């Protein structure tokens, strides 16, 4: 089997320094751990100039698009990373699936309005990547064997030249990003309460056990989304951050703390988040908030519902008897919130791959509710607009069968002179609408405040 070529570069703990060399290039994309050295934040991956960009055609079923992705990976050709190197990507697909890609996989009536009109998915085929390993403190250019030598030489020279001044001219080159006014929610508190009460009626009728209810915040904006991203990641560093400009001039920004599914060497892990508390103003208050979350019967029940849902989803693609829950109700803390997180693992069944995982599990259960399909139908009924990028996924899939993917919460879309951001949370039978409304604000307040201060 052919080996990838590796070319070492000077290590940068800040992936944005390397990305600035290519951020205006066609198909530029950054998957940014944003927390060097942190668990589940080991690698950054960036690339550009894909050989192909794949987007679903009008009316194309989700499984048909996934098969096209599989064929594109096969066309690129399999390859391996040289012995002695532990790198997550050897060439393959990088991009996003919007939440609404789920409409191509499941039967959803279509009550809500697609006012943002973001393509349901876009994934490029990339024959190279720059990968930084924050555990070993290395940066490497990884070249798939299919990449021609002149292109390898061009990229090597590009990054070598950039290394000489990385960061030194940033302040004068960055174009500011500004909001025309503070971001405002699409719903008033009373409108949120109305949607909440409709969900409660469905829960009482036995249609569902849990629904993730989301509200959108928007404002007109101007300037460079890259400046906004750099400010947001400084204020809220998370292990599944991402930045992806699109052909139409819009940009995806993600500061997600949540893994959707990882697959590597046949082993699968999902890490659903369900349960949130704000960080405290003092160490004592902060510790108390975390302890309260872990002790909350309501939050534990919400989390367990989603764990059970994911066990079922992974069970469609994993070997019978291999799906386990090695971690339940763990605490993960971020600058703005504490989260309750669990882990669901499994082993891919014979003849199944990472794309089968996507087909059987997307969108993530932590941002739909349970049971999933009915939850998606209710969401489509009570939320007035498509979720677009929010609650979709940023992901890579490589030619060896490896995949890692996020749930695109704490995520934003800059499009047509407007920036959109979403916040939501789980509604169950004993939820209180005021608490849920406040939680939807708490989750994104650091993002809204950061943008307002630019």
Task: List the SSEs and their pairings.
Elements: E1 5-9, H1 15-19, E2 29-32, E3 43-47, E4 52-54, H2 62-76, E5 92-97, E6 121-126, E7 128-133, E8 138-143, H3 149-163, H4 170-173, E9 177-179, E10 184-185, H5 189-204, E11 210-223, H6 225-235, E12 240-245, E13 251-256, E14 259-264, E15 267-270, E16 273-278, H7 283-295, H8 297-315, E17 324-333, E18 337-347, H9 354-361, E19 369-370, H10 372-382, E20 393-398, E21 403-406, E22 411-415, E23 418-427, H11 433-453
Antiparallel strand pairs: 1-8, 2-3, 2-12, 3-7, 4-6, 5-6, 5-20, 7-8, 9-11, 10-11, 11-19, 11-23, 12-13, 13-22, 14-15, 14-21, 15-18, 16-18, 17-18, 20-21, 22-23
Helix pairs in contact: 2-9, 6-11
- Terminal-residue CA separation: 50 Å
Tell me what the CATH architecture is.
Answer: 4-Layer Sandwich
The average pLDDT value, as a whole number, equals 93
Low-confidence stretches: none
Name of the level-1 CATH class: Alpha Beta
Specify the number of helices: 11
Largest sheet features: 13 strands, antiparallel
Structural class: alpha+beta
What is the CATH H-level superfamily? Answer: Anthranilate synthase
Helicity range: 25-40%
Kindly identify the CATH topology.
Anthranilate synthase
Total count of domains = 1
Tell me the total number of β-strands: 23
Q: From the alpha carbons, calculate the radius of gyration and give it in angstroms.
A: 21 Å
Q: Report the principal-axis shape.
A: globular
The fraction of residues in strands falls at: 25-35%
